[in-house]
Structure formats: C-alpha cells, structure tokens
User: Fold these one by one.
Assistant:
Number 1:
Amino acid sequence: MKTLAGVIAAIVLLAFGTTFVLASVQRADASACVVDPSQLPPEGIEGWKGDQLVNAGLIMDAATQLQLGKDAQIIGVMTAMGEASLNNIGYGDYETGGVLNPDGSPTSSVGLFQQQEW
C-alpha cells in the first residue's frame, strides 16, 4: 500500500507540471520509493494507465537502485512524460518523418527518453 501511495503521489505531482514541482522542491536526502507493478490500479491514475504506469514505476525503481532521491524520480518520470508520453517508443523521427541530424545522419531517437544512439 505504501508503494501504491508513492506512485500515486508521484503521478499527481507530475500532473501539476514543472511549476508545482519547482515550488515544492524536496530535500536532497529525501528517500525514493520502490514501485510494485502488481499494485498499480488497473483503472489508471490521472489519465495514465497500463504500460505507462509500469514505465513510470521502472523509472522510479531505476532511480532508487542508483541511490537517487525523489527529485530524481520526479525528473525522470516528467522527462518520459514529455518525450514519449510514458510509452517506450521503438522508432525515431527518421522512420516516421525522414528527420536528419545536423550532420546528415538519420535520427535514431527511441525509448522513454527519446535518446539517440550516437
């Protein structure tokens, strides 16, 4: 139940956007929580559901494993919300629109954070 409360709290914080998060900065030593995907509500949270919530949980768990605090969890989830709507995208802009990098190489942005291979 504590894990579910942590996930809900993180998603609610993220839903209010950057302004709210910046206004309520956590202490650097604030502990992060671990997410149990089996405890996620099937009906979703604030419009996010299914794999999106699982992906948010995986990001939060990765931050915890790296011994990062709640701020890192929030920033990671917010980034994935903005870059890929919490969907693990397996294709980049080149495949869908022929977009090229400044050096002329095809873009290869994939995943939750839309990272490029180069």
Number 2:
Amino acid sequence: MIFIIIIIIIIIIIIIISIIIIIIIIIIIIIIIIIIIIIIIIIIIIIITTIIITIIIIIIIIIIIIIIITTIIIIIIIIIIITTIIITIIIIITIIIIIIIIIIIIIIIIIIIITHHHHHHHHHHHHHHHHHHVSRWNIMSSSLTADFWMIILNRVHQATH
C-alpha cells in the first residue's frame, strides 16, 4: 500500500510539474507573439509615416517648382512688355525727331528760297531801276510769291516816287 501511495504521489507531482511547464511555455509563446505583433505594428507605422512624409515632401517640391515656373513666366512677360514699351517709345521719339528734322529742313529751305528771292529781286530791282516792267516780270515769273512780291513792289514804287 505504501509503495502504491508513493507512486501515486510521484505521478501527481510529475503531472503538476508538467502542467506548470506547459503553462510557462504557453505564456512565453504568448509573450513572443505579442512582441512580434508590436514590432510588426511599429514597422507598419514607420513605413506609413515615411510614405506620408515622402508624399508631403514631393507635393511641397512640386508646389515650389510650379511657383518658380510661374514667377519666371511672369518675369518674362513683364520683361517683354517693358521692352515693347521701350521700343515703341524709342520708335515714337525717333519718328518725332525725324519729323522735327524734316520740318527744320523745310523751314531752312523756305528761308533760303525767300532770302534768295528777296536778294534776287532787290538785285534785279537795283540793276533795272528805271525798267519797271523787267522787275515786274521777274516777280510774276515766281508765281508762288507773286502777290507777296507785288505788295513789296508797290511799296518800293511808293518809296521811289
């Protein structure tokens, strides 16, 4: 009987020990699984955040590029406008200058013609003082200033008489 009891006790102890060991193993496995899950979650979070960050960075870079391009385009447009304005102003100024020069030339020519005619007239008049028909004919020949010279001739006549 004692022997049987001892055997039973030993069996019970073995069973208990084995149960404890199994429980410990199970606990360890559970802990390992939890750790693995946590690690996986962390990795996933890291991946997601990096993806998000890279996306944000890419978007920012794109925005910056767009801004730079638009500013460059705007600057180019402004430059073109300014240059066209400057060119038109220069053209207008040159045209005005040319017109002024032409006017001055015309005025000079007119003055030369008038003075020449005047001297011419006087010259002839002095030479042919008693030949009134000659001086009158000379004045008439310049048809443009005929009336003008007729007035002068009348004055000269008044002065001589």
